[in-house]
Amino acid sequence: MPSQLLKTQSYVNGQWKDAQSGQEYQVVNPATGELIAKVADCAAADAEVAVELAHEAFLSWRKTTAKERSQIMRKWFDLIMTNQDELAEIMTMECGKPLAESKGEVAYGGSFIEWFGEEAKRVYGDMIPAPAGDRKVLVNKQPVGVCSAITPWNFPLAMITRKCAPAIAAGCTIVIKPAEATPLTALALCELAEQAGLPKGVLNVVTASSGKEVGEVLSTHPLVKKISFTGSTPVGKILLKQSADTVKKLSMELGGNAPFIVFDDADIDAAIKGAMASKYRNTGQTCVCANRFIVQSGIHDEFVKALAKASDELKLGNGLDEGITQGPLINKAAIDKVSGLVDDAKKKGADVVTGGEPFSSKGGYFYKPTVLTGIKDGMDIATEEIFGPVCPVFKFDKEEEAIAIANDTPFGLAAYFYSQNLSQIWRVADELEYGMVGINEGIISTEVAPFGGVKESGMGREGSKYGIDEYIEMKYLCMGGLA
């Protein structure tokens, strides 16, 4: 078991701290059911202290130069990559994803530290032509202040770096509440940030077995000026309401219901490759994974056959074992949800091409990769986010029908489609009501592009040159009497 980076206390103001109550909670490996560690179980009082100390740190951190912040972040990135194997092992133990995927996430998550460390030096203001000769009109950009972040378990490193990197680069400080199932990766990041020379109080992590108390502090405390959340739409709406009284700056990446459309002229081999990458990444437990397959009638049967064959070739098991390509679901509730959606679809007429049931494993939460056909309106699986290794397939005849099915959801995070018709590509890309669209691509996440959704999938963007704007306020300066 990794030791150097395995921390079990919260990290506040540069110190490792137990919860004020002395309480701890268990972090369990979802592949085996084994105890990994006992972690500080913090509450509202702990979060309040973290916010207050983050505010004290902000008063000095905001005055550092962009170059100074950039140099520290570069050291942090280098340490993350140097410790890639150990970070990946911790991640796989606590969330179950295969070790190769975890290593990929370390590199992906680290890329945000590298990117925003560079962007820190490119937060430019403006000189605007003045309306009178005795004035100068300037726009200055300043850090918003103390930020808070609440992050999910499915990407326990990348979802944190995507938020804390732009905040820290902009000159903000941040308090993070990681998912209760995956605090160890977050705490390991703090250890490396300290080694890189990040001053105390700039990065703080408060662990808790329940998000309610800590989350309420992070969304209501008057010293918190910005909140960033990745998680479910219902919880996002609660945080929006709680933050309203103090009118905080907000970023929300919420639920998804991603369509994956395959047109008759698509390259089927490419579409299958994209479908497998999108659907089965982290065992289907991602907000942007393909949730509904919408396949044109001319290639429907061929596509389903190939998808089922590729799904059957996946190997389930403990992510630390060699050759494993599919890990467990995160907990029993996840198994129950996926089983319920599949059972409902079967009762209402869906056909199981492959899978369709849990995979027996001592102590682990596994579900067989599943392909269903005959999906219709009225089935729960047609409208709900699955968050598991299940491919429900719709059949359509005309382009307009596919677009209507794809857009028939309150969510609008990611969408995918495969076509070789250039005119159709532009038409469909324009019509899809989503913040991100993969065209002949199944994996679209990168630090250089803006990540985020529309409709009830959230607001704001993470990554890219736009991502740092979420942590900055513009100040207009009018200088008169210059004639």
CATH superfamily of the largest domain: Aldehyde Dehydrogenase, Chain A, domain 1
Strand content: 15-25%
Shape: globular
Distance between the termini: 70 Å
CATH architecture of the largest domain: 3-Layer(aba) Sandwich
Task: Examine the coordinates and then state which fold CATH places here, giving the name of the CATH topology of the largest domain.
Answer: Aldehyde Dehydrogenase, Chain A, domain 1
Largest sheet data: 7 strands, mixed
Q: What is the average of the pLDDT values?
A: 97
**Arrangement of strands in the largest sheet:** 14-17-18-13-12-20-21
Whole-number count of domains:
2
The CATH first-level class of the largest domain comes to Alpha Beta
Q: Using the CA coordinates, give the radius of gyration.
A: 23 Å
Number of helices: 13
Structural class: alpha/beta
Strand tally is 24
Q: Report the uncertain regions.
A: none
Helix content: 25-40%
Characterise this structure.
This protein is 37% helix and 22% strand. It has 483 residues and is an alpha/beta fold. It folds into 2 domains: 10-254 and 457-477, Aldehyde Dehydrogenase, Chain A, domain 1; 258-446, Aldehyde Dehydrogenase, Chain A, domain 2, CATH 3.40.309. The chain has a 7-stranded mixed beta sheet, sandwiched between helices. Strand 8 (173-177), helix 6 (183-196) and strand 9 form a beta-alpha-beta unit. Helix 2 (66-82) packs across helix 6 and helix 9 (268-280) crosses helix 10 (300-312). It starts with 9 loop residues before the first strand and ends with a strand. The mean pLDDT is 97.
